[in-house]
Design brief:
2 domains; alpha+beta; signal; Yope Regulator, Chain: A; 158 residues; DUF3617 family protein; seven-stranded antiparallel β-sheet
Length: 158
């Protein structure tokens, strides 16, 4: 009887449902992101998880200056960001392809082809910032005088 009278008040019922929704949904996103990071660590040699800050997990690897995994942004479901020297080495492309295949669950050659095309398109004619779409992945490559970077994302609706 006491429980029934407790839920007769609409504001109390709404507050209880809101609390259940918040508690039930929040850990799922972080857990999924942590699972992806652990899978990356287990399958890519030399990869280490360094810092976990909310929706970003920073990773380290000898082939990249910076490497991070972003989870659930405003316009994307997952993001892979990698930065290296201005002239990327084959190990960098291998790292991006391996990580992208695990994160986005698409074949490794597709990620390798898309990332290498994006980085190689930067130059005199197209400039230092190139955005392209390849196999349902959005790729944005930028470079400075000393570094080149790539951000690979997939939209929320895909």
């Amino acid at each position: 009887m006491a429980l029934g009278s407790l839920f007769r008040r609409p504001t109390l019922l709404a507050a209880t449902l809101a609390l259940v929704a918040i508690v039930g949904v929040s850990p799922a996103q972080a857990d999924r992101c942590d699972d992806i990071a652990k899978e990356l660590k287990n399958q890519i040699d030399g990869l280490k998880i360094s810092v976990n800050t909310g929706n970003m997990i920073y990773l380290t690897h000898p082939a990249a200056k910076e490497l991070s995994l972003g989870c659930r942004g405003r316009n994307y479901s997952n993001e892979l960001y990698a930065k290296t020297d201005r002239k990327p080495k084959p190990q960098f492309f291998e790292l991006v392809a391996s990580a992208g295949a695990i994160i986005f669950t698409i074949p490794k050659p597709d990620v390798a082809t898309g990332s290498s095309r994006c980085i190689k398109r930067m130059g005199i004619l197209r400039g230092d910032k190139v955005s392209m779409r390849f196999r349902r992945l959005n790729m944005e490559c930028t470079r400075t005088k000393t570094e080149a970077s790539i951000a690979v994302t997939r939209g929320k609706d895909e």
